[in-house]
Amino acid sequence: MIVIHEFGHFIVAKLLGIPVETFSVGFGPRLFGFRIGDTDYRFSAIPLGGYVKFRGENMELMQGKSEGSVDEFLSQPKWKRFLVAVAGPVFNIATALLIPTAAILIGFEADIYDSQQVVIGEVTPGSTAEQSGLQKGDRIIAFDDQKNPTWSYWRDRVITNLGEDIPLTVDRNGQIVQLKLRPRVETHGKEQVGVVDLEPPLSYIGVAQVMKNTPAERAGLQVGDKITAVNGAPVTGWHQFRRIIQEGREVALTVQRGRETLKINSSPEKQQNDSYWLGFSRMFETKLLKTNSLATAMRYGWDYNLRVLKFTGEVFQQIFRGQRSASNSVAGPIGIARQTVDTYKIDGWAGVIRLMGLLSLSLGILNLFPIPVLDGGMILLIFIEWILGLVGLTLTMNFRERFQQVGFVLVLLLMGFVIINDSVKVVEDWWSKPPAQEQQKK
Q1: How many angstroms separate the CA atoms of 403 and 375, rounded?
Q2: Residues lower than pLDDT 50 in the chain
């Protein structure tokens, strides 16, 4: 995504006739490459993004080597420098928009409930959802500032809530009811998330995987089975199923296997954390999302990225308010690499491509911040230079140097923070990892 960002700077500079000295994939010592005209296209030793180097830009300026040549970047007209500066973020944002747009044009499987309006299938007894007055069959017609919210919007809004009341409007068999919902807060790993114990209406629980040497395998449960009833009671939700399993007694499962209806008995097994399980993973019901309309696909790409921006913005607000820890919410290169591996294990290449879109959007937006060294800082300098020019003043080289130096230090501090933070997490995870024997037993 960084290479795409730098390519944006590069191609716009080339189109505007601005000389480019270097286009590098990676940082550090040059490994190999080739030269076309005045540009050195190279692969460098440290595979973390890349960079574009213009003559007389940034580092040369800081070292006092600017010659004032017409070929230097700072000698170019302000409008050209502005277009080059903004091109990197624009390419990232365009990539983020393109990925979901292309995905829905090609077609992909998604959770069947993601795009459906929130209709409650089950409310866990004693939960905050029940205490707020929500009931089975309720249809949420307004949730905070969103009318007719979908389950995907609901999850985003709930997971970022840290115990604050959320107003909602419910249609209960034609009667409009005003309620307030306060999610409970759980700690997953080191991250705090909001949880509401309710779910969509389910008619069965699908079996995605059966673990070896577990009650589910011994009972004969198979991948693709649909559990439609437990102890004679129809399945209404995953939490309902889990509550019955946690009783620890033998259960009678009604299973749909193709055209057959089977009766399977199984006794849940107690785990080290004192919870019970049968030993299978749940298969989520999906549907194909696809459109042949480019306009519809572009709208989907726009809405998807807007949803991500709102989600990210809420998290950052909580960090600045002190409600959420920056060390647990921000990741650097190591954290991103680990997240990429985990995403691939769960969702394959499709998940990795989605993650690329999220990173590209974050990179594009972050670089527009008016921070020295970032593109936003360069854009800010161009506007200051333009305003000063209106009254016959110029931006001094000394100010430019100090501005760049401050930005350089800030970026170094930020990189140091995220890399140390990522490294600490790796060590902590390794230290808390159970012995191999316990993992195998688990």
Answers
A1: 13
A2: 59-64, 66, 436-442
